[in-house]
Amino acid sequence: MRIILLPILVPFLAFFFALALQPALIAGSAQAASYLAAVSDLPLPDGLTEAQEKSTVFDSPVGRIVTAYATGQVSAAAVHDFYSATLPQLGWEKSTAGNWRRQHETLKIDVLGSEAGPVTVTFTLSSENE
Hints:
Layout: H1 2-29, E1 32-35, E2 43-45, E3 49-50, E4 56-60, E5 63-72, H2 76-86, E6 93-96, E7 99-102, E8 105-113, E9 119-127
Antiparallel strand pairs: 1-2, 3-5, 4-5, 5-9, 6-7, 7-8, 8-9
């Protein structure tokens, strides 16, 4: 009886063990502490805080335009490095410095401030009309 239950019990326990560890693994490996409120799949690197009161969102049947801002005591290079590593994983392709494309949207990321920080980051997301 033990031999028959073992092949069933091991995968079952491994599945529940993985479920129990998943939040800890995600929290430990994630570099993004939060996401922009207006663009739910655009992460913010640690150290940046969104200025939600400054954000604007225009949504229409032909697309959307979002302007969002974040500030923090982070270097400009760290912001650029974060997005260069993260955005391709989310389906974005770099078109030119600070500009990204995904499907029918463009994303422009401007980092203003001293190289050592603090910085203000402006995100402009717009739909491309065909």
